[in-house]
Amino acid sequence: MPEGDTLYRIAAGLRPFLVGRTVTVATARQPGPRAALLVGSTIESVESLGKHLLIRFSGGLELRTHLGLRGSWHRYAPGERWLRGPSRARIVIEVPGAVAVCFDAPTVELFETRAEPLHRTLQALGPDLLGPQFDETADTAEAVRRLRDRDGAETIAEALLDQLALAGIGNVYKSEVLFVERVDPFVPAARLDDETLACLVTTARRLLVANRDGGPRTTTAVAGEVRPTGRLWVYGRSGRPCRRCGTLIRDLRHGRHNRRTFWCPACQPSVVEPPG
Q1: Which pTM was predicted?
Q2: Pair 104, 201 in one domain
Q3: CA 199 to CA 19: how far, in whole Å?
Q4: CA dist 109 → 3, 91, 163, 165, 214 (Å)
Q5: 33, 51, 217, 243: which one is catalytic?
Q6: Cα(123)–Cα(107) distance, rounded to whole angstroms?
Q7: Is 51 helix (H, G, I), strand (E, B) or coil?
Q8: CATH number of the domain that 27 lies in?
Q9: If both were cysteines, with which of 15, 20, 180, 195 could 46 make a disulfide (CB 3.0 to 4.6 Å apart)?
Q10: Cα 56 to the chain's mean position, in Å?
Q11: Residue 73 shares a structural domain with residue 173
Q12: Which of 2, 33, 127, 185 is catalytic?
C-alpha cells in the first residue's frame, strides 16, 4: 500500500499538469462518482493528506481517492497509450494537454468541498506527518496522545499503522522507524513512555520528509549512515545480517490485519515475546 511519501509525490507530479486547467472530459466506472459533474470546472488544487489524494475543483466539488494495495494514478499525453487496460480505470480526468487516470483504487469519492470539515474519514485522521502545517510540538503531542489512547494490548507496530493515530506511515516506515529507535515492535503501545512515543513520531516524520521529493526511498542515509547499496535497514531483509550488528533479521505477520513486521532481535531487544 502506498505510504505518505508516495502520495506526496503523486500529488506533486499531477499538480503542474492539472492545476489551473479546465476539465474537458471526466468519466468514472460505475457504480462510482458522477464524474460528468466535473466537466467545465477548473482544478484548483491537488494535495495529499496521509494516504489520501484530494483534488479540488472550482465548482465546489472535491475528489478523494485512496489507492489501497493496488491502486495508482497515471498521467498521459492526449492520445498516448495507457499502461493499464481501460477496464481498470476508476476515474479519468482530461484537461487541455493531459489525461489523469486513477486505476484500481478501492476508494473514489466525489463530495462537496464545503463538507470536508464534516467528512468522517478525513476528519478522523491523526496528524499528517507530511502536512504543510505540521506543528512539531502540538501535532507530535497529539500523535503521542492518540498512540497511547488505544487498546492496552495493541502492539506499537500495529499502532503506528493506524491512520487515526497519525497519518502517512505504512508497513515500510513502521519497521524502519522502530529499528532506528531500537524499539521492540511487539511491546504494547500503552507501555511506552511519552518520550519514546514522541521519538517514534519525530523519526517517522523525518524519514518521510527526506523521501517525499523522489528518488529511491532510503532510511539508512537519513539515519546518518550512508549505504549506497543498502537503502533500508530491516524491511524486506528477513534472514539477512543486520546492517548495524550482524544479527539475522526476522519477520512475522501479526495483528488483526496480519501485516508483516521486520526487526533485529539484538538491536530491538524483546520486552515481550513476539506473537505466536
Answers
A1: 0.94
A2: no
A3: 36
A4: 19, 10, 18, 23, 27
A5: 51
A6: 16
A7: coil
A8: 3.20.190.10
A9: 15
A10: 20
A11: no
A12: 2
Residues 6+ apart with CB under 8 A from 111: 61, 62, 64, 119
Q: What mean pLDDT value characterizes the chain?
A: 95
- Do 161 and 250 have their domain in common? yes
Residue 3 appears among annotated catalytic residues: yes
Least confident span in 2-16, 182-196, 222-236, 244-258: 222-236
274 lies in a domain?
no
Dihedral Cα 266, 267, 268, 271, nearest 10 deg: 50
Q: Which of 3, 62, 158, 181 is catalytic?
A: 3
The set of cell numbers assigned to 249 is 533479521
Question: Is 185 part of any domain?
Answer: yes
Catalytic residue among 191, 227, 259, 260: 259
Is-catalytic flag, 2? yes
Would residue 72 be called left, alpha or beta, if left means φ above 0 and alpha means ψ between -120 and 50 degrees? Answer: beta
- Round to whole Å and give the CA distance between 233 and 180: 8
d(CA 198, CA 204): 10
Structural domain boundaries, residue 224: 138-263
Whether 247 is covered by a domain: the verdict is yes
* 259 a catalytic residue: yes
CATH number for position 226: 1.10.8.50
The DSSP bridge partners found for residue 56 are 45, 62
Q: What is the DSSP string of 212-232?
A: TTSSS--STTTTT---TT---
pLDDT of amino acid 150: 73
**Residue 276 located in a structural domain:** no
Q: Based on the domain organization, do 65 and 90 belong to the same domain?
A: yes
pLDDT (average), residues 16-41: 97
User: What is the grid cell recorded at 129?
Assistant: 506527518
Query: Could you check whether the bond before residue 31 is cis, i.e. omega within 30 degrees of 0?
Result: yes
